Every structure is written in C-alpha cells, then in structure tokens.
Amino acid sequence: MTTPFRHLFTFVSSTPCACRPTRQFRQAARCFSSSPVVKSGHSKWASIKHDKGKADAAKSKQRAILTKDIANAVRIGGHDPTMNPRLTLTISTAKKNAVPKAAIEAAIARGRGLSATGAALENVTLEAMLPPSVAVVIEAQAESKNRILAELRMLIKDAGGNVTPVGYMFEKKGRIRFEKKEGVGADEVLEPALEAGALDVMEDEEGGVVIYTDPAQTVSAGTAVAKETGLQIAESEIFFDPNEDTLVPLDKKAAAVNIGKFLDLLAEVTGVQGVYLNWTKGAIEEELWAELQSKQEV
C-alpha cells in the first residue's frame, strides 16, 4: 500500500512593506515511502485458456476413439454401411458428436487399408524406451512411411526416450471382444473357442466375452465363435501383450505425468493404430493410473 503524503510547510520571506515584514506559506509535499501496487497472481485469460485447452483435448480424444471405432467396424464387416449395421451405428454416433465428414471418410478408408486419397497405406511399427525404462511399441499406418517415422522419433526424443528394440518384452496376440449377451459367458464360449484355436477365454468388466488367439487365427477364430454362439463381434485386433516378468511399476508421479503427455501428443498423430507399454500401476494414485490407461486405449 502506498504511504499517504505528509504535508510540510516552508517559510518564504516577502517584504511588501519595509516596516513590517510578513511571512508567506508555500505548501510542499514529500512522499516518505512508496511500494508497488500488488496485483493478483491469477489471470482470468489464463484460466479461460487452460479450460479451453482441456476441452479441446477431450474433444480430440473423443474424436480419435470414434474414428477408431469406424475403422474397426470396416475391418470386421466391410465398408458398405448398408451391409454392415455396426458401421452404420458408429458413423451415426460420430455424426452426433460433430466428427467432420472428412474424418469419417478417412476412417472408413483406413479400415480398408487406404488413405483418404485412395492410396495404399504402409504399416509401420516403432519400438522405443521411455523414462523410467518403460518399453513402448507403436503401430501406425501412413502414406509416407518416412514422414510418420520422423514424427514419432521426434515425440520419443522430446519425452526423454530413445528408439531401441523392445519387441522381445512383448508377445503378439489376437484379441476378439464380443458384445454382451444375457446367458452367454466365458463358460458357455470356452468349448467352441478352444475348438476354433483360442488360447484363452475370459470376461471383461462389462460382462462381455473376450478370447485370445494366435495372430494368424484372429479372424477365423472370431468368425467361428460368433457363428457357433450367436455372439456379435464388437472388436477384433492384433496387439502386443507385455510379458509379466518385464512389467515396470510407475512409482513416481513425475514420470507418469511425462508418459501421459507423450500419449496425448501421440494421439494427435494421424495414422497411429495402437500403442503398447510394459507398465503397471506401481505407487501412483489410482486416478492417475486410470487416466493413463484411458490414454493408451486411444
């Protein structure tokens, strides 16, 4: 707070009359001390910008999930919506969530292994190590293999990681998720799944049946089980499953947050199909771990 001014008076002699001098007052002001105005450390614009950034990130994440669903629906049932009810549903959901027409068309093309221009896409796999010694495998499809590799390498470098072989820490498997159906669980699916070549059968958190297969048998096993049980395939994919003895616990929040930022940037790279890490929760908070897992799924 600025100190109030204190008024001082100085005497100035004047002699209008030679017989009787008079004194005239002249007022002066002096500021003994002052201090700068203290402003609030909060900025309304910064808060608005922060909130907008979070909203944009959420929209980007949702769009990535919806376009991935479209591409997956195409791989399972074909690119013609009139012959593929699941594709019709995913396109409708995307439109309701304001996904641009161009993004929907690109997702349909990607499901067919094509770019938006109709050119064949190249499959790209990149392996790397991120702090704190977390192995990551990234799968992508792109028109220009060199361009996307350069972009991914830059993101890994900025995250403090380095490109290096880590594939031996994972096992490649096929995974088919079926839509939930009352009265049909893992026990009912076990026998036909094993006959179709499944390696394992389980139920997810929502009660849907999930079977694991060798990569080469993913399509045939999924089709056979669906035909035998009447279940509808929700998702079919080939993924990298980390080996149990290589899992790295996330014990430090800073390292976990750094990986989260890396996954956010990775989600913005067009053509990324999957990201797999040999991590486990460790000592970080449950909420942060759930957030990281949701980012990996994108």
From TrEMBL:
Similarity field: Belongs to the TACO1 family.
Cited InterPro entries: Integrase-like_N, TACO1_YebC-like_2nd/3rd_dom, TACO1_YebC_N, Transcrip_reg_TACO1-like, Transcrip_reg_TACO1-like_dom3, YebC-like
Domain TACO1/YebC-like second and third: 122-279
Stated name of the protein: Uncharacterized protein
Annotated compartments: Mitochondrion
Alphabetized Gene3D superfamilies for the sequence: 1.10.10.200, 3.30.70.980
GO cellular component terms, semicolon-separated: mitochondrion
Name of a matching Pfam family: TACO1_YebC_N
Top-level taxon in the UniProt lineage: Eukaryota
Organism expressing this protein natively: Periconia digitata
